[in-house]
Amino acid sequence: MGRAIELDEFADDAELAEDAKLTEKAELSEDAELAEDAKLAEDAELSEDAKLSEDVEDVEDVEGAVPSG
Fold this sequence. Notes:
single chain; 0% strand; mainly alpha; 69 residues
């Protein structure tokens, strides 16, 4: 009977270890998704900043081409 209890405890420990491993994988996956989302948001912001910069340059070009007065 003692051997069966040991095996049960071993099985429980293995299940807990597997659960912990799956939890850790899920957390790492979520962290990776959040990092990817942050990178995409940053890329979008940089793209928007570049577009705005180009728009400003276009306006400056037009203003420079228009004779004043």
